[in-house]
Amino acid sequence: MSQDYSAYEDALSSAEIIGTETLPHSWREAPRAWGNELHKLAPYVGGFPPALANYLLQQYTDPEMTVLDPFSGGGTTALEASLLDRDVLASDVFSYACTLTGAKTHPLTEDEFDAALKRVKRDADNVNPDMLPPVDEDAAIFFHEDTLQELRQYRAVLKEDTSRDGRFLKAVICGILHGPSELFLSIQTRDTFSGSANYVKDYKEKHDLEEVYKPVDEKVRDKFNRLVGAQYPSGSTRVEQADATSLPFEDDTADFVLTSPPYMHMLDYSWNNWLRLWWLDEDRSAEQDSLNQTSKVELFRSFMTDVIAELDRVLKSDARAIIVIGDVRKHRQGGAKVVYPARMIAAEASEFGFEVERVIEDDYNVDKRYYTQLNNLRWDEEEEDDGQELIDRILVLRKGDPGPQVEVTPEWSD
Ligand SMILES: C[S@@+](CC[C@H](N)C(=O)[O-])C[C@H]1O[C@@H](n2cnc3c(N)ncnc32)[C@H](O)[C@@H]1O
């Protein structure tokens, strides 16, 4: 299908298009690990850096405003906005994303954590192993049998628990379930993506890895100890599991959107987290079906049109929406083609009366990201290099008169 490039050009014609180097300050200057410890509660592939959220929230919002993120993922926007004392509306269609966003924005205090862990451990110890569902053979590859047994008992206690305590403990356990160090409950896996069982089996043999018993309660406590002393969020946050084309939020309730939609099938969130979904007892294939994972430009475009209609409905009349989305290389027979979802979104948003105020081109080379490289392995290695660098684009959209942008010196440049 042919692309209507004139609509893209029109939508961008009045925008200020700048690179990060033009900004007085940018998130690029922040130290690599900058950010509240709560951001590291559990991994979420494809999230943007906390410093980026902090920078944009400081420049464009004040504590009176309500911030919306309909693709909340690991909760970067929600947590950063709440730490800055903004109220937040956050949603994602993926259950694990909602567990994480909810846990990070409603963390337990030390006393609450101690009481919750004690109660859940006691209940888990009392679960009769004979009543548990059969051992999952793929999951078993990752753990010592006694750790696995404990995990199954904790799961039996926590799986129906939707309380704040339960959600927080689930997120902490997901955060230490598997990964590349002693902190994790699994054998030392290569990374925190859930690799396939066969891959992990080979990796285990190749590196002669032994399963070691790791008591769940001790590792959970070690993880929690890292949060002690961290600032806790103060803004109120509502987190809902919902499709972004049908948001459960009232009309005219948000002042600002900071979000990042799925990048046209760059990532399969349900697959990258399969072991966490196993432990959370979520249905991976149902989750996969609910995620927008299209690589077809026209399907993505109509999805984003519906999303923008929802943003327009939930936003007040004077508001901004910032959408972070990178260029995408589509692989197909006959070679690769780069598409620019940001331009498409700009054109669609202008149909709803949004004006493109600014586009910040973030020269972080998307091709160099680990997950992009993993994704590329699935394609023809003979494919010629098209020489085009994929970059992230930050679209600043505005409707009505949302007030000026405020130049604030970020914390990391003090
Ligand atoms: C690029 S990620 C967002 C990452 C987030 N900014 C962060 O820092 O963690 C895109 C998110 O869109 C979610 N998603 C995919 N399809 C969706 C849909 N139809 N409705 C709502 N969320 C969806 C995915 O679960 C994923 O969390």
The largest pleated sheet is described as: 8 strands, mixed
What CATH architecture label of the largest domain applies?
3-Layer(aba) Sandwich
CATH superfamily caption of the largest domain:
Vaccinia Virus protein VP39
Radius of gyration, rounded?
Answer: 22 Å
Q: Which stretches of 5+ consecutive residues score pLDDT under 50?
A: 373-383
CATH topology of the largest domain: Rossmann fold
Q: Could you tell me the strand content as a percent range?
A: 15-25%
Q: Helix count, per DSSP?
A: 16
Helix content: 25-40%
CATH class of the largest domain: Alpha Beta
- The main sheet orders its strands as 1-9-10-6-5-2-3-4
Give the number of domains.
2
Oligomer: single chain
Ligand catalogue: S-adenosylmethionine
Distance between the termini: 51 Å
Round the mean pLDDT to the nearest integer and report it.
Answer: 90
